[in-house]
Structure to design on (625 residues):
């Protein structure tokens, strides 16, 4: 096993904070922060640590220490669930974030916006080449697995611990050569499903542990042989295998579900059948739990349509949409999820498009409406498929062009022009991902990893561009973004801007500026964050009160309406504790219920007339009156 040298070891003694609901004191939390040898943190850097959880910021949630410090005792809340870190040395920054497990948090500090080698395979060691490998992230986000491939090491595996930066093998070997399989988290390990052996398409799967081991994997049967398919984890924790090659190039339109717990039951019964068979499809789980399937190919060529499945994959959620009608043509379709159940797609541009159009992108609304965008660039290269990489603040990255001439653009959901993709601040400095390698793999909202060849070695590269995540704290959410004052900080629309949908000018105008009739009720969402208990206030300057979206619940709507009477200007308030929610308006109140888990929050236009919102505040605790 290979290990990086620790750059920092901190011991945090948690204590009860009087303003927080911590039930006990005295737990010691050990934070192990490391940087890869290829991009070490400067010894002179200072390190800011922030405790994150279901509580508000206080003088006990952040500390500034030397990056060279060790055995430091700090006072953090007992209920800390994650820790973020920012190291600074002059203009350079290194970022890290990790969940707390037990009494420890292990995080890697990576240079901001700059690619870094996390692991390089020794000559002759796995993986020796990039061909047919599959990769995935463990359910707790701590370990990455690379498995299989097309070469002589195609039954091998690589485990990489993203906190300790240690690497090793997950098992003595896979049960068979597996190229173009799928890797998804299952329990405390991984499911490596299907794929091609040296002679056939496989109809089984290996359960591989997430720890270094010499034991062989557990092998389970599947109902159907399947390779070059997609694997996606449903909201239930089950793995959904989607379409693929059933043997001899036969495109499958079937689905199979595998339980995440022993004995790993699997079934075809009760599942939808896709509208078209697809080899090499893309499948993602949307933020509303639905599954979006797109792209792939069949005997007639590439497939440009997308189709939606219900969260349990039992049926189609809506009719398919063919993106060819909006300019998609040829190549592999890229997909990534956006807030509210929307998605972003990208594909090759048509040969009839202007020569400066590199690719075409599609903003797909939660209802299946499509807004296409031409992505302008220096030249079109039809040999290389565009890639989409998830990013914080509903701003994914788009990679276009061939290796050595790739560009990285970033999507701005608040851009009104026909060019919502702008040059990004990323400076990879290393080979970027392309269609020949698995990934890129989102490690969390602010980081991703990928395999690429550099200096005749296969490297696992990582890049972190932010530390924002599920426990992000945002108080005043209509504040202009300091890097782009034309967009509000940490809010994102569920579809395009327009005079009939949504506008922002320091005030949030749900329903647009009133110059055009409303065609659909617009929504905005707090990006990346999920909330347990909270205290939310909405200040409405004009128009009907907006709905407050908490998960699937539309608070203030027909199922649980705002108390009457009331009229703008007014302040609305929502209090949540567990499943119970209280809506407050003027001197009246109304109880409601939501799902009992951490949920996203958004606002939705409350009627055909536009609403003008001038304030939105969310606190992760209910404040006393």
């Amino acid at each position: 096993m290979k290990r990086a040298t620790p750059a920092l070891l901190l011991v945090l003694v948690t204590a009860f904070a009087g303003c927080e609901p911590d039930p006990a004191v005295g737990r010691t939390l050990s934070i192990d922060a490391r940087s890869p040898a290829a991009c070490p943190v400067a010894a002179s850097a200072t390190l800011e640590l922030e405790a994150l959880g279901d509580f508000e910021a206080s003088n006990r949630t952040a500390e500034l220490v030397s990056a060279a410090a060790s055995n430091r005792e700090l006072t953090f809340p007992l209920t800390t669930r994650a820790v973020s870190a920012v190291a600074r040395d002059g203009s350079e920054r290194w970022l890290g974030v990790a969940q707390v497990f037990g009494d420890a948090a292990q995080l890697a500090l990576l240079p901001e916006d700059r690619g870094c080698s996390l692991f390089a395979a020794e000559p002759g060691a796995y993986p020796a080449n990039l061909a047919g490998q599959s990769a995935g992230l463990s359910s707790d986000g701590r370990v990455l697995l690379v498995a299989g491939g097309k070469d002589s090491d195609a039954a091998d595996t690589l485990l990489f611990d993203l906190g300790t930066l240690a690497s090793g093998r997950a098992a003595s070997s896979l049960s068979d050569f597996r190229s173009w399989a799928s890797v998804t988290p299952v329990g405390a390990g991984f499911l490596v499903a299907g794929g091609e052996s040296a002679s056939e398409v496989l109809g089984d799967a290996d359960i591989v542990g997430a720890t270094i081991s010499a034991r062989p994997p557990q092998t389970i049967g599947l109902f159907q042989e399947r390779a070059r398919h997609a694997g996606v984890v449903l909201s239930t924790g089950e793995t959904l295998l989607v379409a693929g090659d059933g043997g001899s190039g036969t495109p499958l339109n079937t689905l199979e579900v595998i339980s995440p717990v022993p004995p790993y039951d699997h079934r075809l019964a009760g599942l939808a059948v896709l509208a078209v068979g697809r080899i090499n499809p893309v499948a993602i789980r949307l933020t509303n739990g639905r599954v979006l399937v797109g792209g792939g190919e069949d005997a007639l060529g590439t497939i440009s349509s997308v189709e939606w499945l219900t969260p349990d994959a039992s049926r189609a959620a809506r009719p398919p949409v063919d993106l060819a009608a909006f300019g998609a043509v040829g190549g592999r379709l890229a997909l990534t999820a956006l807030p509210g159940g929307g998605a972003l797609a990208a594909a090759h541009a048509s040969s009839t498009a202007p020569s400066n159009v590199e690719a075409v992108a599609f903003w797909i609304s939660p209802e299946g409406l499509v807004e296409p965008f031409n992505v302008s660039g220096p030249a079109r290269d039809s040999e290389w498929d565009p890639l989409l990489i998830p990013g914080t603040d509903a701003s994914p990255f788009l990679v276009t062009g061939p290796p050595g001439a790739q560009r990285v653009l970033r999507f701005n959901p608040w851009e009104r022009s026909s060019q919502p993709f702008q040059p990004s601040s990323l400076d990879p400095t290393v080979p970027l991902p392309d269609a020949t390698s698995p990934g890129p793999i989102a490690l969390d909202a602010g980081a991703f990893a990928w395999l690429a060849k550099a200096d005749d070695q296969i490297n696992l590269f990582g890049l972190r561009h932010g530390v924002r995540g599920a426990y992000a704290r945002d108080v005043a959410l209509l504040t202009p973004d300091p890097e782009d004052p034309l967009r509000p900080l940490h809010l994102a629309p569920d579809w395009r801007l327009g005079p009939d949908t949504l506008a922002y000018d320091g005030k949030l105008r749900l329903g647009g500026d009133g110059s055009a009739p409303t065609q659909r009720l617009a929504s905005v969402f707090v990006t990346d964050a999920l909330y347990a208990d909270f205290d939310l206030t909405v200040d409405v300057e004009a128009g009907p009160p907006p709905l407050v979206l908490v998960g699937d619940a539309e608070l203030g709507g027909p199922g649980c309406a705002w108390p009457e009477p009331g009229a703008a200007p007014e302040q609305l308030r929502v209090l949540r504790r567990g499943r119970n929610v209280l809506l407050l308006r003027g001197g009246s109140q109304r109880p409601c219920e939501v799902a009992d888990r951490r949920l996203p929050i958004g606002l939705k236009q409350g009627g055909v007339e536009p609403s003008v919102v001038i304030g939105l505040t969310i606190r992760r605790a209910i404040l006393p009156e």
Summary: Residues 480-619 form a domain with the Jelly Rolls fold (CATH 2.60.120). Confidence is low (pLDDT under 50) at residues 1-26. The first strand starts at residue 6 and ends at 13. The chain has no helices and 53 strands.
